[in-house]
Specification:
By secondary structure, the protein is mainly beta. The chain folds into four domains: about 5-130, no CATH class; about 135-200, no CATH class; about 215-245, no CATH class; about 285-410. It is about 5% helix and about 30% strand. It contains one helix and 27 strands. It has one helix at about 110-130, and strands at about 5-10, 15-25, 30-35, 35-40, 45-50, 65, 70-80, 135-140, 165-170, 185, 200, 220-225, 230-235, 240-245, 285-290, 295-300, 300-305, 310-315, 325-330, 330-335, 340-350, 360-365, 375, 385, 390-395, 400, 410. Strands 15, 17, 18, 19, 21, 22, 23, 25 and 26 form a nine-stranded antiparallel β-sheet that branches. It has a four-stranded mixed β-sheet with strand order 2-7-5-4, with no helix packed on it. It has a four-stranded mixed β-sheet with strand order 8-9-10-11, with no helix packed on it. Strand 17 and strand 18 form a beta hairpin. The N and C termini lie far apart (about 150 Å).
Length: about 400
């Protein structure tokens, strides 16, 4: 502070006085000390007196001292109230030193420049304490489909950090789409623009509806849990199904990824093991096996299993190539290729013309050993030929394949 003329200093009984102040004294200037202040004549330091709980009368002069011409006095003030003093030396920046400026006092008046500087410092400090605090800016019409662009707490509506709005009308597109009424938008920085990272949005339109029967599909019933069982009911409660298990350790049930109907065992038809008559040529029905061919084969070729476990053409010419046990039912099958073979059942080929009925309908293994000619209806008659019954004809174009494992070697 700058002292002008002859100055009068005192403590203020109705407020607080604190801080650290100094001023230069001009030639022959004096300081008049009022209530609650004392001047150390040796050091020239002025300080707040320790006061009791009694009010000190305003304007009560304690002493008047004069420093050397051009000297400097320093005033150290501790926080003082009207009724008591505190020994703490905590200093509060920006505090204003109050002088007696009452009209009519001889020594009234303080330099206005000093007052303005102190007040400016105090204002800057106070403003710094509230930077970024939430400032409710009211309702926001989000149908502009963007973040707020005006209406902030700054100069001319500039948006500042902490400005917050509550959505009153929802957006139809843009960054605030799907944010319902009651959701909030808060600026994280000064002048945030339309950058999403500069805004904090809070969704507030979530609700909760208790799960109960009224929320279910009334046409299809509902599900519930009871005693560790999944209960499926219709809407009337007249049909109840339980899914449960008696296992004493965890089980996992996986439902198939397709539409279907769950049936009782009594609803499942009995398994039909009957052999159907093939509806088309080169058709078959019965017990099958997959084998790899040794040579190229055709539908109806009879094969034996060789030492390598492959299907080779059977022939009644010798015992080594006899014992036909499978019938190729592939239209064609290349050599060294896996295919389907009939072990027991019905085969149909419309180019066949078998004799049907009695002993003449029996099928034997032929002595040809060539593809397309392994079946015959005549018994062998040459030395060392093997006689093996393979089945019988049920129709000129159909045979019942049922190879016998008992063969007879012909001896003349």
């Amino acid at each position: 502070m700058r002292l002008i003329k002859r100055k009068y200093l005192e403590s203020v009984t109705s407020g607080r006085l604190w801080g650290r102040f100094s001023a230069d004294l001009g030639p022959a200037e004096e300081i008049s000390i009022g209530a609650g202040l004392a001047l150390d004549p040796i050091t020239g330091v002025m300080a707040v007196k320790e006061v009791s709980n009694d009010n000190i009368a305003e304007g009560a002069a304690i002493a008047t001292s004069k420093l050397a011409d051009g000297g400097t006095f320093e005033l150290n003030l501790r926080k003082v109230t009207a009724l008591s003093s505190e020994s703490t030396n905590v200093q509060y920046p920006g505090a204003k030193l109050l002088f007696d400026e009452l009209a009519g006092k001889e020594n009234a008046g303080v330099a206005s420049t000093l007052d303005a500087a102190i007040l400016s410092t105090a204002k800057s400090y106070a403003d710094g304490l509230v930077v970024g605090l939430w400032d409710d800016r009211g309702a926001f019409n989000a149908s502009i489909n963007s973040y707020p662009i005006a209406g902030g707490s700054g100069l001319s509506g500039l948006i500042l950090k902490g400005d917050i709005w509550t959505i009153s009308v929802i957006a139809t597109s843009g960054v605030l789409l799907n944010y319902g009424i009651g959701s909030t938008i808060r600026s994280l920085v000064d002048n945030p623009g339309q950058t999403p990272a500069n805004w904090s949005t809070e969704l507030r339109d979530l609700g909760y509806t208790p799960e109960n029967v009224s929320n279910k599909n009334t046409s299809g019933g509902y599900a519930e849990l009871s005693l560790f069982k999944l209960i499926l009911k219709n809407v009337f409660g007249t049909v109840t199904n339980f899914l449960t298990t008696a296992a004493t350790f965890p089980r996992t049930w996986t439902m198939p990824d397709k539409d279907g109907t769950v049936a009782l065992l009594s609803d499942i038809p009995a398994i039909d093991n009957s052999i159907e008559i093939p509806a088309t040529t080169l058709g078959y029905d019965g017990t099958i096996i997959r084998l790899t061919s040794v040579v190229s084969l055709a539908f109806g070729d009879v094969c034996y299993i060789n030492l390598n476990g492959k299907a080779a053409l059977a022939s009644a010419a010798t015992e080594a190539t006899a014992t036909g046990v499978v019938l190729c039912v592939e239209p064609t099958l290349a050599a060294n290729t896996e295919g389907v073979f009939l072990l027991y059942g019905i085969a149909r080929k419309d180019t066949w013309n078998w004799t049907v009925g009695g002993g003449t309908g029996i099928l034997f293994l032929s002595i040809s050993g060539a593809s397309g000619n392994t079946l015959a209806q005549t018994v062998v008659s040459a030395e060392d030929n093997v006689s093996q019954i393979l089945g019988f004809a049920t129709h000129p174009t159909r045979i019942f394949f049922n190879p016998s494992l008992i063969q007879t070697v012909y001896k003349a």
